[in-house]
């Protein structure tokens, strides 16, 4: 029997789940079993957990349907547990280093207790100053093992379930489980405290809990707040039947109704039914109020008295006088432009959403490009009933295909379709003034796999943060997303940190990369002709990334000198970052400037190999299973000033060169395409080409635009079964 069974529900936290699991498996005390609870075998979390279970026999996943909620997930884990002690860890939590060793040592000191409460930290989502709310409560408890009568303030309802260890035999003997519904921690904690005979505390932080930027799910508006009253009634009824002492009952009553009053007074938690909530709470208060109960002082005491009397009108006047003014102040964001444009937008916002209108935008209006264009094309095939409008800047309107409807950014048509579209698809973000209407569906497709820090994670890098602008505005734009597309699990996890919000990640792959599996040899030959690649030559795509600390397009690599050194069989396709697409050609002779070519996918298809530094193009190009060489002449500077999510030098997609001489050498000696380069590329593809299989656009259209259930979406084809588009030339070592 292991010492600890650690149960980790994973619903909605696939992006952060690995942090929780890693924190457990890294513990110095190893006598435990780890029980992740997944929604089902096909969910994103199950795929994460499967890898851990393969590597460590202590990981024993179980399944619980999402409809069962947190209570069902925890109970499912507890039923399979065989450890002496149970710990419940949310997917947003981590065990601090040495946590299990500290718990084991403390339990050895206290002897046979039923529950051991411990401290926890609540860490703000931006990694700000943590708080330790349990410390003041536990500080008043006796030093050794004690009975609940000795610590009446430890009622169990103020501490989350993941702030204690529970003796499994005690829970089984008393038939204690998490009550169904929301606020299950309140019910479970109260019932545990009422049933326990011996308790102890550990005045040490064991769990670190991440406070999500969007707040707890329990804090969202909705009728689920009535279930707080269900949990309070459950605990108070059990306490009354048990004949709890006056001091313990008074503490329990005060703590429960402190939570009830906080909900009753909150302006957003109960948009409807606040009077009914108050009326029921008032009846519960009068029915269970202990004789001689002394209400707290100050404003809270006034609320207690009003609740006891059922004086809803007075209670509302006390706490809600400014609600109408707050709603007025929030107003409707105003688009830039003249008064006539703003008024028109406001009017359009009052009209019903058009259920068949979809709006697309890519790279802030640079044209018909990237994931939005690929989704648009597939939607015309699978959802022809939709009217699809692409948004572009005026100077890019000529680049839109003739059979694609478009609207110029800033025009009346632009604001009209944004106001009424049900579906909004973007690989960046829509303007700040765009209103997220109820019933609309916003899909963020992203436009690359993150190596460099993104979003909120840029805040600690001064050069990047200065260029990013207001992070508050950035996150307000992120809050409009309903779905966020990802092409690999690395991205899923990094987007969770970079763009913290309530959107759902879609692990469907990038639609723009579908062409890497659907194109054939004729397509490759056609693109090479269009780009001017001489027949029989090997085309090396050189695609460096943007550097925030540099001005303009700069590269320390002399491409003409490189061509001279590596031989006549090669030409170089130069593709600068799109920030530097000024329309002029930089290439001469064997250097072909393809920066202005509309499609990066076409350019990748044409290339026999890729040379890049830290550009995300490497993740897309890897789908082609062609050689990649990393030219990392300033990696240390880039990593320090820009920030990165992983060390590319430790896990490159192929050979790495640090100097022009080293780069030329890997092409002269053929090592750019040898067995070792292939092995590095295979590992890279395994990690970063997980969901790109040629069917990403179809999955997105079916799920987002057609509303098909997740189980009806085509599964991802295994990497080993995919056939990438063929290269134009045979790569052999010379």
What structural class should be given to the helix and strand makeup? alpha/beta
Number of strands: 21
Describe the main β-sheet briefly: 8 strands, mixed
**Which strand order spans the largest sheet, edge to edge or round the barrel?**
3-2-1-4-7-6-8-5
Overview of the molecule:
This protein is α/β, with parallel strands linked by helices. The protein is 39% helix and 15% strand. It contains 28 helices and 21 strands. It has an 8-stranded mixed β-sheet, with helices on both faces. Helix 8 (226-242) packs parallel to helix 10 (274-288). It is globular and about 95 Å long. Mean pLDDT is 89; it is low at 321-334 and 578-587.
Distinctive features:
single chain; 734 residues; alpha/beta; 8-stranded mixed β-sheet; 7-stranded parallel β-sheet; 28 helices; 21 strands; 15% strand; globular
In short:
It is built from 28 helices and 21 strands.
Write the SSE topology:
Blueprint: E1 4-9, H1 17-25, E2 32-38, H2 44-55, E3 62-63, H3 69-80, E4 85-88, E5 93-95, H4 99-110, E6 115-124, H5 134-139, E7 164-167, H6 168-173, H7 184-195, E8 199-211, H8 226-242, H9 246-265, H10 274-288, H11 298-309, H12 312-320, H13 323-330, H14 339-350, E9 354-361, H15 370-382, E10 387-392, E11 405-408, H16 412-420, E12 421-426, E13 441-444, H17 462-468, H18 471-478, E14 483-486, H19 489-498, E15 504-507, H20 515-518, H21 521-531, E16 538-543, H22 559-566, E17 570-574, E18 591-593, H23 600-606, E19 609-612, H24 617-621, E20 628-631, H25 635-642, E21 656-657, H26 660-668, H27 675-688, H28 696-705
Parallel strand pairs: 1-2, 1-4, 2-3, 6-8, 9-10, 9-12, 10-11, 12-13, 13-14, 14-15, 16-17, 16-19, 17-18, 19-20, 20-21
Antiparallel strand pairs: 4-7, 5-8, 6-7
Helix pairs in contact: 7-8, 8-9, 8-10, 9-10, 14-16, 15-28, 21-23, 22-26
């Amino acid at each position: 029997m292991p010492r600890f069974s650690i149960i980790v529900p994973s619903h909605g936290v696939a992006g952060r789940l690995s942090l929780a699991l890693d924190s457990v498996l890294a513990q110095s005390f190893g006598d435990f079993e780890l029980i992740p609870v997944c929604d089902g075998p096909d969910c994103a979390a199950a795929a994460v957990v499967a890898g851990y279970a393969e590597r460590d026999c202590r990981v024993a996943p179980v399944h619980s349907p999402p409809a069962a909620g947190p209570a069902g997930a925890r109970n499912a884990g507890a039923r399979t547990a065989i450890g002496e002690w149970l710990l419940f860890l949310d997917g947003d939590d981590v065990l601090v280093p040495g946590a299990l060793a500290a718990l084991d040592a403390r339990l050895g000191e206290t002897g046979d207790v039923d529950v051991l409460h411990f401290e926890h930290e609540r860490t703000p989502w931006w990694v700000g100053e943590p708080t330790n709310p349990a410390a003041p409560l536990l500080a008043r408890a006796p030093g050794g093992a004690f009975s609940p009568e000795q610590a009446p303030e430890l009622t169990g309802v103020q501490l989350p379930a993941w702030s204690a260890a529970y003796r499994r035999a005690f829970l089984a003997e008393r038939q204690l489980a998490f009550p169904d519904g929301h606020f299950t921690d309140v019910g479970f904690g109260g019932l545990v405290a009422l049933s326990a005979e011996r308790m102890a505390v550990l005045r040490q932080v064991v769990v670190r809990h991440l406070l999500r930027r969007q707040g707890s799910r329990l804090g969202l508006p909705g009728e689920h707040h009535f279930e707080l009253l269900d949990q309070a009634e459950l605990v108070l009824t059990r306490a009354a039947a048990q004949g709890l002492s006056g001091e313990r009952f008074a503490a329990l009553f005060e703590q429960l109704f402190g939570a009830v009053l906080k909900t009753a007074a909150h302006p957003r938690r109960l948009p409807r039914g606040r009077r009914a909530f108050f009326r029921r709470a008032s009846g519960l208060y009068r029915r269970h109020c202990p004789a001689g109960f002394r209400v707290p002082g100050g404003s809270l005491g006034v609320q207690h008295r009003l609740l006891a009397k059922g004086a809803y009108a007075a209670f509302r006047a006390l706490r809600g006088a400014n609600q109408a003014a707050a709603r007025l102040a929030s107003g409707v964001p105003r688009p830039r432009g003249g008064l006539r444009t703003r008024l028109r937008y406001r009017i359009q916002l009052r009209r019903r959403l058009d259920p068949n209108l979809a709006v697309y935008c890519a790279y802030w209006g640079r044209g018909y490009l990237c994931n939005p264009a690929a989704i648009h094309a597939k939607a015309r095939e699978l959802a022809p009933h939709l009217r699809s409008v692409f948004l572009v800047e005026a100077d890019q309107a000529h680049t839109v295909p003739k059979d694609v409807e478009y609207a110029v950014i800033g025009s009346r048509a632009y604001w009209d379709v944004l106001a009424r579209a049900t579906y909004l698809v973007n690989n960046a973000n829509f303007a700040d003034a765009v209103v997220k209407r109820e019933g609309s569906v916003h899909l963020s497709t992203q436009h690359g796999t993150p190596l460099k820090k993104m979003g909120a994670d840029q805040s600690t890098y001064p050069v990047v943060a200065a260029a990013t602008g207001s992070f508050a505005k950035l996150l307000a734009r992120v809050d409009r997303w309903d779905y966020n597309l990802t092409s690999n699990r690395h991205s899923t996890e990094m987007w969770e940190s970079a763009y913290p919000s309530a959107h759902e990640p879609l692990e469907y792959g990038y639609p723009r990369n579908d062409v890497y599996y659907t194109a054939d040899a004729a397509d490759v030959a056609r693109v090479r002709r269009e780009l001017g690649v001489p027949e029989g030559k090997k085309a090396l795509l050189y695609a460096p990334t943007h550097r925030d600390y540099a001005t303009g397009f700069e590269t320390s690599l002399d491409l003409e000198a490189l061509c001279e050194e590596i031989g006549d069989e090669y030409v170089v396709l130069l593709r600068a970052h799109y920030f530097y697409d000024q329309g002029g050609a930089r290439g001469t002779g064997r250097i072909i400037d393809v920066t202005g070519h509309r499609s990066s996918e076409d350019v990748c298809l044409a290339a026999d190999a890729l040379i890049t530094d830290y550009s995300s193009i490497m993740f897309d190009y890897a789908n082609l299973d062609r050689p990649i060489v990393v030219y990392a002449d300033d990696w240390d500077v880039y990593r320090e000033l820009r920030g990165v999510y992983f060390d590319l030098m430790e896990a490159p997609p192929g050979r790495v060169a640090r100097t022009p001489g080293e780069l030329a050498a890997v092409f002269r000696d053929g090592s750019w395409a040898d067995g070792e380069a292939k092995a590095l590329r295979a590992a890279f593809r395994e990690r970063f080409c997980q969901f790109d299989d040629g069917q990403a656009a179809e999955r997105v259209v079916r799920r987002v635009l057609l509303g098909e259930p997740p189980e009806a979406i085509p599964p991802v084809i295994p990497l080993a079964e995919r056939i990438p588009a063929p290269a134009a030339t045979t790569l052999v070592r010379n």
